[in-house]
């Protein structure tokens, strides 16, 4: 079977240059090729659906935001809608019509049926369209814990090697790491939601959102993290990178373990905070995690 890019070129919907450009973007930021071509303005959504329908054995549908039945949309909880990249757009007899980026994912369809108590009619929709509806009808649910007063933590640069141009980004990263440590989090995660960037803290038994950023910050943040960890930019899809980031502080050195891995909408950064917390506690600069969160 031909790859999607070649199928689109063969049908005259995009050029080889367009495919190469989308693949270049995909290597840096992840994402599905069809959705990237649409976002870049190279591919029409209707053409994408026409090519994909026989490949996924599902009816393609262009979502009209204003025509979505709110009663149907309300059948799916926000967390499940975002996890499965699925939006309920209407009801037909005893079936819930759901637009999905991956209608062939039987596990996702089964989960949707179990939660809604309805048979699901899964249709194919393009990534940008699903992302738009998720943002409108399925907001992220957040619960912020109360934080204890902040202890003295470094707020300048991540490493000596990053003092050239990225002061603002470095300060942001340091502030997030500090707040995650104070909250008792085991990991700080920076990940892409459909229309924005989410920074969240993972606790031993729960997680909560720390902040949201414009999507435009994703690439510079990932690049700063790579620079701080001494990691090269990957040159092929499917990469996963791991390395420690050193944090100089009061004549000593803290360390957080960085993991970068591809995700549907772009690379996710995961920072393990256990070693940094242990060193701060040993130095008497931070209380143990169990007593940090109010």
Commentary on this structure:
The structure is a single chain. This protein has 294 residues and is an alpha+beta fold. The protein folds into two domains: 4-137, Type II secretion system, protein E, N-terminal domain (GMP Synthetase, Chain A, domain 3); 160-292, Beta-Lactamase. It is 39% helix and 21% strand. The protein is built from twelve helices and nine strands. The strands form two sheets. It has a six-stranded antiparallel β-sheet with strand order 6-5-4-9-8-7. Strands 1-2-3 form a three-stranded mixed β-sheet. Strand 2, helix 7 and strand 3 (119-124) form a beta-alpha-beta unit. The radius of gyration is 22 Å and the shape is globular. The relative contact order is 0.12. The model is unreliable at 142-167 and 290-294 (pLDDT under 50).
Shape assignment: globular
| CATH 4th-level superfamily of the largest domain | Type II secretion system, protein E, N-terminal domain
- The CATH class of the largest domain turns out to be Alpha Beta
C-alpha termini separation: 56 Å
Quickly count the domains. Answer: 2
Helical percentage = 25-40%
Fraction of residues in β-strands: 15-25%
Poorly predicted segments: 142-167, 290-294
Strand order of the largest sheet: 6-5-4-9-8-7
Q: Give the SSE string.
A: HHHHHHEEHEHHEEEHEEEHH
Taking all Cα atoms into account, the compactness measure Rg is: 22 Å
The biggest beta sheet reads: 6 strands, antiparallel
